[in-house]
Amino acid sequence: MSTLSISDLHWSPLGHGHCHHQFQLRDVELQVGAGEFVGLIGPNGSGKTSLLRCAYRFNKPERGRVRLGEHDLWQQSSRWCAQRIAVVLQEFPDAFGLNVEEVVAMGRIPHKSLFDGDSHEDRQLVQQALQAVGLQGFDDHTFASLSGGEKQRVILARALVQQPQVLILDEPTNHLDPRYQLELLQQVRRLGIGTLASIHDLNLAAAFCDRLYVLDHGRIVASGTPDQVLTAELLHEVFGVQALIDRHPLADHPRLTWITQR
């Protein structure tokens, strides 16, 4: 398994159809080691999704490098990248009447030539992925008929059958109720795949991430373990809110309680 590394990255939305955005990604340095779960946190509009798009070869940086191991992603083909990096986005794809099994099987496409059918191994991988996300028996359900949370788990299963070296998740718990938020992040951790995820809920980030990067106005302003990063001072400075930080009573990680003014 290879390390995903971003170095000296600059990217601007100007000229990319997003001129209403005020941020530019600047001087970004970030690494995701093999088997490491890394969280990307920051206020809305800070550039998290744009940075993730640079990490999976969608936004081409104006300066800097994005590498997987020793390979510069922008010197590789999109197929090469899709064989090694899987992505779970906030938006759901148009499935055009496909059922769950067919959507998940699409994750095998980067590993096959144009006219290859599904092999026995492909079908096994699909079933294993559906079981991993708790959707065994959903094979014949149409994707469009599923709830938001079920769709999110199908897309995670599709990512798993790519057999990636790196998994990139953009707000993966957005459509999930608390039970499935916890289950999905537990599943991701159990995979042992290097993972970079933008996470809105800072308590989930504290509970599941090995390390965190804080993005504010397009710059990384802090990085480290959840204990190092999630301080009352940083939360007030970056998010503009006051919080009480203590230890979770049942687990060894920080717990945040927001202080509201009545």
From TrEMBL:
Coiled-coil region: none
Record-listed E.C. numbers: 3.6.3.-
Top-tier EC class: hydrolase
Keyword Transport applies: yes
Gene3D superfamilies, A to Z: P-loop containing nucleotide triphosphate hydrolases
InterPro entries noted in UniProt: AAA+_ATPase, ABC_transporter-like_ATP-bd, ABC_transporter-like_CS, P-loop_NTPase
Highest taxon above the source species: Bacteria
Record GO terms (molecular function): ATP binding; ATP hydrolysis activity
Annotated keywords: ATP-binding, Hydrolase, Nucleotide-binding, Transport
ABC transporter domain ranges (all copies): 4-242
Family according to the record: Belongs to the ABC transporter superfamily.
Protein name: Hemin import ATP-binding protein HmuV
Organism: Pseudomonas wadenswilerensis
